[in-house]
TrEMBL record:
It is found in: Cell membrane. It comes from Acinetobacter equi. Gene3D superfamilies: 1.10.287.130, Histidine kinase-like ATPase, C-terminal domain. This is histidine kinase. It is an enzyme of class 2 (transferase). The lineage of its organism: Bacteria, Pseudomonadati, Pseudomonadota, Gammaproteobacteria, Moraxellales.
Amino acid sequence: MFKQSIFLRIYGGLVILVVLVALFGYLFVQIINYKRAQEYRQSLTDGISLVISEGIARQPSLQEKLDWISDASDLLELPVYYLHKNKVDLTRAEQRRLEEEKAVVRYDAQNETSYIVKSIKNDPEHILYMSAKAKDLNEQLMRVIPIFIWDYLAYYPGQEKEELEKLQPHFKYHVEIKNLSELNLDTEQTSRILLDHNIVSYRDSASESGTTITIYSPKPQAPREVLVIGPIPLFNWMPIELATGVTLLSLFVLSLGVYGLLVPMQRRLREVNYALNRMKSGDLSLRLPVNGADEMASLASNYNSMSDHIQRLIESQRELMRAVSHELRTPVARIRFGMEMLAEEDNYQDRLNQVEQIDKDIEALNNLIDEIMTYAKLEQGTPSFDFERISLVEVLDQVVSETEALKTQKEIILNAPAANVEVDAEYRYLHRVVQNLVGNAVRYCDDKVLITGGINERGFAYICVEDDGCGIPEADRKRVFEAFARLDGSRTRASGGYGLGLSIVSRIAYWFGGKVEVDESPSLGGARFTMTWPSRRFKNRRVKTN
């Protein structure tokens, strides 16, 4: 069902496409955020690592440096190592960052651990190496940043603001010293500042910056001078720029996928439209490729069948016109000739004979017209069938009785089916099939005609008419069902018929949903005509076919 419905395939393709695009968007955000998170960690560590490096560089001896590092490690609550630079493998990009006095941050996703590497001023042979859980790194750095900055500024009494301006390029956030009166703090916060306590202020914003942190740290022994650090934006996993970009990219990929799903159907519709335009111009030779089993394949198949049917109708109409013009001329010419003879005939008995002959010609002409109308009606696809349950033996018996009444001097043998064998058919047309087949067999047999019927093992009804005549060559067996085709080449009354009987049988078999075939009779040696059709056509027996 899924393969046979183009719309289900499109809907299913859309669902799969949406899932893939969602997965793509998720992976894309993860990759981008991995890069952003790395840059964010580096931006937080650049300034503080420089201050720590400066603090170490000021220590005059190695032991004092190690003691300072130990104190810093306790303050940070992180392991801090003083290593020779050859013990850490650095990439060129990392070496370049160290040369620019920036920190190198490495992230181990498996252990969720960040490693910080920083060069030491005036000590090119050693580096600082720190490690911390990624989720704790930001909090620990925020807590100790004011302590290390005030420690750094302690070496520049009275010049704190000037030195802080020199450090500002190394910080990605604002760092300055303000008077307590300049700050927009409430009473509680002011009291805590005067008590020499640090204050961390969080602020949520609906703008792209999101949540930010501002740190207020009073100067030791001078609490009215406050170090203001921030606002420092917290890492936002989905900023508006990233959300907008991912959404637009996903929509673009989704639109490409939808276009890819619709292109095959558009191409096939274009082929159908082109074929219809060719048909409109009178060219019926084009056929559409039938690929798959969906609605478009069904449309292409129906178009091909329609083209074949129209082309066959046109050819049939042309052949019918040619044949009718020839068939009508013969009886009309005989009638005209009889009328001329009648006008010149003086003997009464001869005149009666001539009138009788003219009447036969008129009857033949009437029969021909009836055959032509029946054939044309069946060929154009406009018959109205009233299907009903019919006793097959009754139809065969009636045709046998009618044929024997003609005193053809032929032996008609009926192998009648059981009386309870019933089939779905239209009585009038089924009688016409049996009548035409038997009449054709009587006309060309030597002595015997065998008629059988019933329902075969596949559930198909069948009628079989055999004769002991000369049979039909295999090369001509398809041609016998063409209109006005007579293999003996004769169109005289001696051969009988007009070449339409078997054509009518073929069309009735078609509209019954079956077929008619001809081969050699295994018992009589002549021709054997067999028509088969479904013994049960529809649940409702009365069906009108247009």
